[in-house]
Amino acid sequence: PATLGVMGGGQLGRMFVHAAQAMGYFTAVLDPDTASPAGLVSHHHIQTDYLDEQGLAQLMQRCAAITTEFENVPAPALMTLGAQRPVAPGAEAVAIAQDRAAEKAHFVRCGVPVAPHAVIATPAQLAAVGDDLLPGILKTARMGYDGKGQIRVKTREELTAAWDQLKNVPCVLEKMLPLQAECSVIVARGADGQIVNFPVQLNLHREGILAVTSVYEGAVPAELVAQAVAATRAIAEGIHYVGVLCVEFFILEGGQLVVNEMAPRPHNSGHYTMNACDQSQFELQVRTLAGLPLTQPRQHSPAIMLNLLGDLWPEGGAPAWDKVLALPGTHLHLYGKLSARPGRKMGHLNITGATPEAVRATALQAAALLGIEAP
Ligand code: ATP
Ligand code: MG
Ligand code: MG
């Protein structure tokens, strides 16, 4: 059988590996971590740095095609791989998604509204920032995730101090917007330009980390659903994207849709697809990578996903899965991480049911059993 490769061995890589193996592929994971969740379940685990020439050569030698599971894979590594093997998404698309300034410029080019913002890479740019962007959020242009590398600022003094605290690396200052809610859309696009999308996901974040995703009729107002899907498709098409792409949006208090950021890979907010849709986001990632046809995925059950963070793990123990799994329509996914830390993504619980009301009732019960704040 052909071998499919993935750069990065986290939980997203692990779920990709599972999907690829279910379709008969062998897999290879490149991740320096000897206990990486994907490396543990893959046929091959190349334990080198992402830029290591020998590691990259081994990956190319083994694999028919290669994908990524986190957006901070060095773009030069993808270029090296891409010269020899199909790589999806490609280095150019990943490079845009790795940089908030480039990403926002792309959204603007696609005609999708973004938060008012300014790039701060020099003291002159800092001095030139207009007061209209305050209060705001200063975000490092690169490498941030789960709210890391972001500081909320109210005044110019706080802005200056925040930029110093972030070591004066290139940043984007975004105006703080009044959010009513947040949502996201996942699309998959093939090398032939065929594109399909999942439904719009309603996302609740806590302390900068995704906590709950809800997907059912009415969770997001119908007119926003159409707008968000059209915007996401335009964003993918505008960079000739190949692979699975997620775009995150803000829904403002006035009801306007504003794009936040994109992830060039399957996304935490798409994990419900594993149990609520006829194809998961990881299956679509395999299809785009292997050049297989895409068909529009169909959600067959209303769903809520609860993220399971390390905070829920008692010292030396585990949450009471037996009680949670006694609830109907609960699907437990754990990533095989060897230690729990506060804020660490250890797994997720998908809840499906016949109606949104039934799913919500079960989610409330599960959250109470696990000690998660009610969604
Ligand atoms: P991810 O893990 O999704 O990649 P991240 O670290 O890249 O997260 P963002 O998505 O930029 O961070 O921001 C995290 C959260 O902070 C958002 O989901 C939203 O709740 C809040 N937030 C970010 N930017 C703004 C803004 N301009 N106005 C209001 N809230 C914001
Ligand atoms: Mg991000
Ligand atoms: Mg985000």
Quick description:
This protein has 375 residues and is an alpha+beta fold.
Which structural traits does this protein have?
alpha+beta, binds magnesium ion, D-amino Acid Aminotransferase, Chain A, domain 1, nine-stranded antiparallel β-sheet, globular, Dna Ligase, domain 1, Rossmann fold, 30% helix
Please explain how this structure is put together:
The protein is an alpha+beta fold. The radius of gyration is 20 Å and the shape is globular. It has twelve helices and 17 strands. Helix 1 packs across helix 10 (281-290) and helix 3 packs antiparallel against helix 4 (91-97). The mean pLDDT is 96. The chain folds into three domains: 3-87, Rossmann fold, CATH 3.40.50; 116-175, 2-Layer Sandwich (Dna Ligase, domain 1), CATH 3.30.1490.20; 179-370, D-amino Acid Aminotransferase, Chain A, domain 1. The structure holds adenosine-5'-triphosphate and magnesium ion (MG) (2 copies). One magnesium ion (MG) is lined by residues 248, 260-261.
